[in-house]
């Protein structure tokens, strides 16, 4: 046989009378004030700033980290589309491996005879004509 | 149409003074709600040292956040919300750290005399039976999920109304009723054997 709901509720209600032992709250208050004073000292200066930053990070819930990561991902994606990129250089198609370079026929060398080496066309060193 | 005005917060004066730096006013608030919050945290953790540390953290958090308390709810509801959030976070961390369930960790807590009522000492035999039932009840409570245990603690043990619990847990009264119904069924089943033997 199961207890009825009323019986169960009565049984649970007995727990209302449970209290911490006598004098507990006086000790509790003493410790509370001691911790507050320590906290106040710890919160001064650079160490205090560091404590506040670390406690802020510690307080961020997993959902907060997830939102943060999602926001960073979205920002990066948007930035990828919005920020203009440089002009793309079209690559030339690569030459096949068996491609052979055929040398073009060499230009005929100008013959000395065809050059005008007469004295009229040649100046003399150091000579100046005014 | 007039909006129904909320009754004034009975702790308004103490809260204002505490916010202005009057530590005695905050001490008065600790003494006023300490027992209730102790009961809430203890029935959730089943561990005295954890309860003590959590209560220190709850009141410290409340003291530091007092400047942000805008009075949208009563101080009582507000500090209860802090206690519920910190306790549930603590239990999650404890599970993660140990890799064990709370039930396995705190098996000894089921025998803790502080969890057993000591107000009915007239009939020793009946008291013994009652103690056995309470031990079984504590075990069954530890087997409930945290949201169900929280609701049973607040409703059946602390005597809060469905509306008050819904405000603290920021959920609907329907959800509270549903959780209570399920938790009661679980507890009834868990007590069945002991109940058969003794009553």
Strand portion of chain B: under 5%
- The rounded distance between the terminal residues' Cα atoms of chain B is 56 Å
Class per helix and strand makeup of chain A: mainly alpha
Extract low-pLDDT stretches of chain A.
none
Quickly give the structural class of chain B: mainly alpha
Helix fraction bin of chain B: over 70%
What distance separates the N and C termini of chain A?
138 Å
Main beta sheet strand tally, sense and closure of chain A: none
Radius of gyration of chain A: 47 Å
H-E string of chain A: HHHH
Q: Number of helix segments of chain A? A: 4
Number of strands of chain B: 0
Name the average pLDDT of chain A: 78
Classify the beta-strand content of chain A into a percent band: under 5%
Give me the number of helical elements of chain B: 9
Helix content of chain A: 40-55%
Tell me the overall shape of chain A: elongated
Identify low-pLDDT runs of chain B.
Answer: 100-120
Q: Compute the CA-based radius of gyration of chain B.
A: 19 Å
In this structure, how is the largest beta sheet of chain B organized?
A: none
How would you sum up this structure in a few lines?
With 130 residues, chain A is mainly α. Chain A has four helices and no strands.
Structure description:
- The complex is a heterodimer of chains A (130) and B (199).
- With 130 residues, chain A is an all-alpha fold.
- Chain A contains four helices and no strands.
- The N and C termini of chain A lie far apart (138 Å).
- Chain B has helices at residues 12-19, 23-45, 48-65, 75-98, 102-105, 124-143, 146-157, 162-169, 173-198.
- Helix content of chain B is 72%, strand content 0%.
- Chain B starts with 11 loop residues before the first helix and ends with a helix.
- Chain B is built from nine helices and no strands.
